[in-house]
Amino acid sequence: MSAVQRSEAFNQQPQRSEDNALELTLTVEPERAEELVRRAKETCQAWRDQVRDESHRREAVHKKWRADRLILSDDHHKLREKVQKLQDDRMKVIAQKEKEILQFIANKAG
After folding, report:
1. What is the dihedral of CA 101, 39, 37, 31, to 10 degrees?
2. What does the alpha-carbon distance between residue 54 and residue 47 come to, in Å, rounded to a whole number?
3. What is the pTM of this model?
4. What total of structural domains would you count in the chain?
5. Which residues does residue 25 pair with via DSSP β-bridges, in sequence order?
6. What is the rounded average pLDDT for all residues in the chain?
């Protein structure tokens, strides 16, 4: 119970139930739809940033390989195209998931 009292999410004292003295009740407010939408968009944006960072790191490895002459220029170009295609595919998936989540939130709120 002390964890609930210290929690910033609740920030209230549990109240005794009128029906049962041994039962404690706690009022929980539902989250606002605008807050859920904002958090969903932030999460999807962080996901996109992570995908971009991964692609950038992979591109840096490919450039190093090219500089060390481990791969040819044509191979470097093909790798760049493949990485870009994979990134585009993952971005489409993220956009689709974001659309589904926002639609779900809108349906629940409305």
Report:
1. 110
2. 11
3. 0.72
4. 2
5. 15
6. 89
- Give Cα separations from 46 to 39, 51, 53, 91 (angstroms): 10, 9, 10, 12
Q: Per-residue pLDDT for 44 more than 60? A: yes
Rounded to an integer, the average pLDDT of 65-94 is: 97
Instruction: Say if CB 108 and CB 58 are below 8 A apart.
Output: no
Angle ∠(89,50,63) on CA atoms, nearest 5? 80
Which residue(s) pair with 70 in the sheet? none
- The residues with which 24 forms a beta bridge, in sequence order, are 16
Residue 3 sits in the same domain as residue 53: no
Residues 76, 56 share a domain: yes
Same domain for 52 and 90, yes or no, is: yes
Side-chain-side CA neighbours of residue 103 (13 Å): 6
Where do we find the tokens 């139930």?
17
Range(s) of the domain holding residue 26: 1-30
